[in-house]
Specification:
Blueprint: E1 4-7, H1 11-23, E2 27-33, H2 40-44, E3 47-52, H3 63-73, E4 77-79, H4 89-97, E5 101-102, H5 107-114, H6 116-125, H7 141-151, E6 155-163, E7 166-171, H8 174-192, E8 197-201, E9 207-215, E10 221-233, E11 236-242, H9 249-265, E12 270-278, E13 285-291, H10 298-305, H11 309-318, E14 334-341, E15 343-344, E16 350-351, E17 354-356, E18 358-360, E19 367-371, E20 377-379, E21 386-394, H12 397-410, E22 412-414, H13 420-428, H14 430-434, H15 441-445, E23 467-474, E24 477-484, H16 485-489, E25 519-521, E26 526-531, E27 538-539, E28 544-550, E29 553-558, E30 563-567, E31 575-576, E32 581-586
Parallel strand pairs: 1-2, 1-4, 2-3, 4-5
Antiparallel strand pairs: 6-7, 6-8, 9-10, 9-12, 10-11, 11-14, 12-13, 14-21, 15-16, 17-20, 18-22, 19-21, 23-24, 25-32, 26-28, 26-31, 27-30, 28-29, 30-32
Helix pairs in contact: 4-5, 5-6, 7-8, 12-13
Length: 588
């Protein structure tokens, strides 16, 4: 086993790997940017080193800086986590060239799957079916339209070097396809530094089912069953579970065999995930892509198999082998994971980075909370919006849903809007309960209007000035009440200036008010990507006015009222704060 491992990542995945290292007696070395100087993952490791300034390109994505720290810290290996450099074949080769072990697959294997067209070719060679699509990049809008006319709509535009739903757009007409190609190229360039995109026939109501594989250095390859990740928004996962509800045993076996065929065809080692689209018939599936790293949703597989995937990664990379055979893998019970993101589902999941006043995780049997945040922590806008992952296990799926509802009620995150209200709704939704949801359910089939916008903690019409919280009894029931003015100033051991403790459940709101002016304002801090209108244009309420990039995601900001656009105050590339005026829309 290694003596020391550098973790080239941040947040909850860095903490997850540090814990695995500690249990194996391995010294863990964290890295951090200026924004993460006081982040929990820095303290979780045995030692930590600064990489550089806040921008990822100057810290977490700077290969030379990561390798310099590795040399200085005297480590044997580097674990990339997920995101950043995790699926960068050049980085994997650079680690090996530096005389270190890369805890992941070979660089060539990463490259073959990082290019989505190459990945399709590997699957086809292995005899695994793929969704009909182009075999080379498409940058001509008219060629894209010709594909749509041949194969029919909807059509998916996908970044060749993308992942996580970024650089993916869906078009249902020729006009939409032209716009989608431009938007996907732009988003892919911003997120991955490569703008190439290809086209696929878009399945209207598929499920997203993936297979976890493990492959050691002696050529042994096994799978650990499947995960269903169909509950998504913007093609990014919200809820994951294992095993997939209602999946026939013969389909599970066929998918597992297909994943192993793909892994063997590309000479894969370490942990990886083959993703498939399962058509509405519940039997026809297509290879989508392979993630050559540990997945965000790996905990649900750990809970139903009892296999520690992070430790398996370390053992395989060290040459110890995984000491597992396919016959050893048995799925027990059911696990569900929900992603707790700094996003407001009541405002189309807009990112909401900011300060977490208090974070209280849920407890109880078979409840796990993986997070890189804590009380008095600021979620930076420069990275992903994830705050943490809440995972539960139970003997069956209904029991897991019930346990998740209870855990979500216990989870408290005060200070910023989060996705918690959506997850409460999802666990009780009749379609999810029946396992009849698909990748398009959230955006096309669910009514999210009950998820009212959440306001920042300082919004609303509460009195200002000193306040404190007192506990009173009414009819034998304890209630927490906040008092202001003279009541707050006297009689409290904590003093009038003590910060008020919030008892609101995670994600609850104080109320929301509709826009009352002609100004269209930014719902979050971000960067102007492009305007869809010019001054003098007439718009209807709901028409796209501006595209705003925040926390690695493009967000379309729609007109809040009908009228004429009389002011467009910013240029593309400008950074705006939350509440900044993006446009002025006056009566026609």
């Amino acid at each position: 086993m290694f003596d020391a491992v550098l973790i080239a990542n941040r947040g909850e995945i860095a903490i997850r790997i540090a814990r695995a290292c500690r249990e194996l007696g391995v010294r863990s070395v964290a890295v951090y940017s200026d924004a993460d100087r006081d982040a929990p993952h820095v303290r979780a490791a045995d030692e930590a080193h600064r990489l550089g300034p806040t921008p990822a390109a100057e810290s977490y994505l700077d290969v030379s800086k990561v390798l310099d720290v590795a040399k200085h810290a005297g480590v044997d290996a580097i674990h990339p986590g997920y995101g950043f450099l995790a699926e960068n074949g050049g980085f994997a080769r650079a680690v090996v060239d530096a005389g270190l072990t890369f805890i992941g697959p070979p660089g060539d294997a990463i490259d073959s799957m990082g290019d989505k067209l190459s990945a399709r070719a590997v699957a086809t060679t292995a005899g695994v079916p793929v969704v009909p699509g182009t075999t080379d990049p498409v940058d001509d809008p008219e060629r894209a339209v010709a594909f749509g006319e041949t194969h029919g709509y909807p059509v998916a535009v996908k970044a060749m070097f993308g992942g996580g739903g970024r650089g993916m757009k869906v078009a249902r007409s020729a006009d939409q396809l032209r716009e989608a190609l431009e938007a996907a190229q732009r988003e892919a360039q911003a997120a991955f530094g490569r703008a190439e995109c290809y086209l696929e026939r878009y399945l209207d109501r598929p499920r997203h089912v993936e297979i976890q594989v493990l492959a050691d250095l002696d050529g042994s390859t096994i799978h650990l069953g499947e995960r269903d990740c169909s509950l998504q928004r913007r093609h990014q996962k919200l809820v994951e579970e294992a095993p997939a509800p209602g999946l026939a045993p013969e389909v599970r076996e066929a998918m597992g065999d297909a994943a192993i065929l793909v892994a063997k065809e590309m000479g894969y080692t370490n942990a990886g995930t083959c993703e498939f689209l399962l058509d509405e018939d519940g039997a026809t599936f297509y290879f989508l892509e392979m993630n050559t790293r540990l997945q965000v949703e790996h905990p649900v597989t750990e809970l139903v198999t009892g296999i520690d995937l992070a430790q398996q990664q370390l053992r395989i990379a060290a040459g110890d082998g995984m000491d597992l055979h396919q016959s050893d893998v048995e799925l027990r019970g059911h696990a569900i994971e929900v992603r707790i993101n700094a996003e407001d589902p009541g405002q189309n999941f807009v990112p909401t980075p900011g300060h977490i006043e208090r974070l209280t995780p849920p407890l109880g049997p078979w409840v796990r909370f993986d997070t890189g945040a804590e009380s008095d922590y600021t979620v930076p806008r420069d990275y992903d919006s994830m705050i943490g992952k809440l995972i539960v296990w139970a003997a069956d799926r209904d029991g897991a849903r019930a346990r998740m509802r209870r855990a979500l009620d216990e989870l408290e995150i005060a200070g910023i809007p989060t996705t918690v209200p959506f997850h409460r709704m999802a666990m009780a939704h009749e379609q999810f309960a029946a396992g009849d949801h698909c990748t398009a359910s959230v955006e096309r089939e669910w009514d999210l209007t009950e998820l009212a916008p959440q306001l920042p903690p300082d919004a609303g019409d509460e009195p200002s000035g000193p306040s404190r919280e007192v506990t009173v009894e009414v009819a034998g029931r304890r209630l927490d009440v906040r008092v202001f003015g003279e009541l707050a100033a006297g009689g409290a051991a904590s003093g009038a200036n003590a910060p008020a403790r919030r008892t609101r459940r995670a994600g609850e709101r104080r109320g929301a008010s509709a826009a009352a002016t002609e100004d269209l304002v930014a719902p979050m801090q971000g960067t102007i990507v492009t305007y869809s209108v010019e001054e003098g244009a007439t718009v209807a309420a709901g028409d796209t006015v501006v595209v705003l990039e925040a926390m690695k995601m493009e967000n379309t900001i729609a007109a809040h009222r009908p009228g004429v656009v009389t002011s467009v105050p910013h240029e593309p590339g400008a950074t705006v704060e939350s509440g900044s005026v993006l446009a002025r829309i006056e009566d026609a």
